[in-house]
Design a protein that fits this description.
5 helices, three-stranded antiparallel sheet, binds zinc ion, 171 residues, alpha+beta, 18% strand
C-alpha cells in the first residue's frame, strides 16, 4: 500500500504482531522514501450486505445485541451471547465468502440460539421470519416438539439392550 504521508508506492515491514485471538495482524511499516512509519492491520475480510445494498463490517457485538433482545428475562448470560456470536461468525466464515447477506446471518443465528434457549429462539424466529399468525408459532413449536420426541427416543433406545436386572445371577 502507498505511504500515507508521501504516497510512495512501496513500504517495508519493520515489525509484525498477531493479536491474542489470532484474528488480526498489525504490521509496523516504514516508507523508504520519507522514512516515516505507519501501522496497518490485516484481518480476514467479512462484510455484511444490508437490505439497502450498503455494506458494513461484520460485528459480533451486533449479533449479540440483536439476540440479547430476544433473551430478555431468559436465563442467558453475556458469556452465552458472546459464545453464540462467535459460533455465528465461525459458521459464516466457514462458508468462505467475504460478503454475506444480512438474511444469512439470521439463518446462522437460529441454530445455536435454539440450543441455547427455545423461548428466545421462538421470539427471534418470529421477528426474523416475520411470523404473522398463531399458526406460524404453532408450526415452529410443532417442529421443536417433534425434535424433542426424536431425542427422547434416542435416549431410550440403548437402554433396551441392557439385560433385565432379575436376569443377573448372584450364585
Ligand atoms: Zn513516505
Amino acid at each position: 500500500m502507498h505511504c500515507p504521508f508521501c504516497r510512495n508506492p512501496d513500504s517495508r515491514v519493520v515489525d509484525s504482531r498477531t493479536s491474542d485471538d489470532g484474528s488480526t495482524i498489525r504490521r509496523r511499516r516504514q516508507c523508504p522514501s520519507c522514512n516515516r512509519r505507519f501501522t496497518t492491520v490485516e484481518t480476514a475480510s467479512l462484510s455484511v450486505v444490508k437490505r439497502s445494498g450498503a455494506t458494513e463490517p461484520f460485528s459480533r457485538e451486533k449479533i449479540a445485541g440483536g439476540v440479547r433482545k430476544a433473551c430478555q428475562g431468559r436465563p442467558v448470560s453475556e458469556d452465552d451471547l458472546a459464545l453464540l456470536a462467535q459460533k455465528v461468525e465461525e459458521t459464516l466464515r466457514s462458508a468462505g465468502s467475504a460478503e454475506i447477506d444480512a438474511y444469512e446471518i439470521g439463518l446462522a443465528i437460529l441454530g445455536p440460539l435454539r440450543e441455547l434457549d427455545e423461548v428466545a429462539y421462538l421470539r427471534f424466529a418470529s421477528v426474523y421470519q416475520a411470523f404473522d399468525s398463531l399458526e406460524d408459532f404453532e408450526a415452529a413449536i410443532t417442529v421443536l416438539r417433534a425434535e424433542h420426541e426424536a431425542e427422547a427416543d434416542d435416549e431410550v433406545a440403548p437402554a433396551a439392550d441392557e439385560p433385565p436386572r432379575d436376569a443377573v445371577s448372584h450364585d
